[in-house]
Prior knowledge:
This protein has 10 helices and 2 strands. By secondary structure, the protein is mostly helical. It has 2 domains: about 5-120, no CATH class; about 145-185. Strands 1-2 form a two-stranded antiparallel ribbon. The longest helix has 19 residues, at about 25-40. The radius of gyration is 20 Å and the shape is elongated.
Amino acid sequence: xxxxxxxxxxxxxxxxxxxxxxxxxxxxxxxxxxxxxxxxxxxxxxxxxxxxxxxxxxxxxxxxxxxxxxxxxxxxxxxxxxxxxxxxxxxxxxxxxxxxxxxxxxxxxxxxxxxxxxxxxxxxxxxxxxxxxxxxxxxxxxxxxxxxxxxxxxxxxxxxxxxxxxxxxxxxxxxxxxxxxxxxx
Length: 185
């Protein structure tokens, strides 16, 4: 990357960060600037532990770092994976929301989202999509597990002729203390 491009991208990101009122979008630009500096300066910038820490982040700052590290423009748009990383939602969930995200467009067969989509997606209540659960407000929990664990849960739910989500909800409720169970009813 040429020095002129580096300085232009860095200034654009700083201006976009300053102009944004959304803290998550601001975090994206903070990560972007770090990633861009690593891209431009190479191994002489930062230390390996810091680099790995940014690469392993699953938030807006980590997504921004990845975009900057790739040497992309700060307003080039986010891929489905980058938006998922920045918001903590799954790629599948992001794909479900594409029609509702302002500025989302398909470019060369891939969805591209503006950075402002981070704030737009994060401002939604996590359970705001889909049918209400038994007439109640919905909330979501994400559980990370191995493919083998997931397979076991799917099989157990199928044995009881239930969907995995319903089976997990019931199983978790059964594990609650009696006084907490009353609050879930």
